[in-house]
């Protein structure tokens, strides 16, 4: 198994399948992972294997390092398409997430005004007023909803809080009133316990589509595994499967893109 831990607080730029030239902003420590999910497909590995007691990087350091990198990129006439909050866990867990979003918007406006700001979140903190407000300020509020099947979520996404409730997540997504992008992982295979976790069948897709229609996001991004995963018996969903699901989303009048 070869999983990834990202530098902090800035990494890249990298080429994103979905977002273009992306400069990463990692609000988690550089020596481990802090996440409210423990996904069996996470490219950063399992939480227990990446345990850290290091703190989140301070707000001032994030702004300082981001400005340094943006100055460097501008001097080299190399502008990012997007500034992406991602990395070693859940970015909205940072205690100063709201303020960091404000700082990032200000720096973006100075150094790369055409760049979008994206946040990749697993949706677990979107009920918090400050997190909700911050996510409404960014261009791409990208929220995870892999399925509405509770048993699958326990086996694959593996929320760390017993109180996790996907129905509440869906209601909190509706509160964005369309200012969000739903991101969904489709995959095939088995978890470490030998349980089938394929979620490309009608049993999973139909209720997920109903939830997507009820949430009414501005866009849906569907994707499949690309890098090595901590669970060793996972397989990609096929191009044909992703394309078929994508067309069903579009038939609801919602934009959709698939990444293979």
Automatic annotation (TrEMBL):
<keyword id="KW-0408">Iron</keyword>
<keyword id="KW-0004">4Fe-4S</keyword>
<dbReference type="GO" id="GO:0046872">
    <property type="term" value="F:metal ion binding"/>
</dbReference>
<feature type="domain" description="Radical SAM core">
    <location>
        <begin position="33"/>
        <end position="193"/>
    </location>
</feature>
<dbReference type="InterPro" id="IPR040084">
    <property type="entry name" value="GTPase_Obg"/>
</dbReference>
<keyword id="KW-0479">Metal-binding</keyword>
<protein>
    <submittedName>
        <fullName>Fe-S oxidoreductase</fullName>
    </submittedName>
</protein>
<dbReference type="Pfam" id="PF04055">
    <property type="entry name" value="Radical_SAM"/>
</dbReference>
<keyword id="KW-0411">Iron-sulfur</keyword>
<dbReference type="GO" id="GO:0051539">
    <property type="term" value="F:4 iron, 4 sulfur cluster binding"/>
</dbReference>
<dbReference type="InterPro" id="IPR058240">
    <property type="entry name" value="rSAM_sf"/>
</dbReference>
<dbReference type="GO" id="GO:0003824">
    <property type="term" value="F:catalytic activity"/>
</dbReference>
<dbReference type="InterPro" id="IPR013785">
    <property type="entry name" value="Aldolase_TIM"/>
</dbReference>
<keyword id="KW-0949">S-adenosyl-L-methionine</keyword>
<dbReference type="InterPro" id="IPR007197">
    <property type="entry name" value="rSAM"/>
</dbReference>
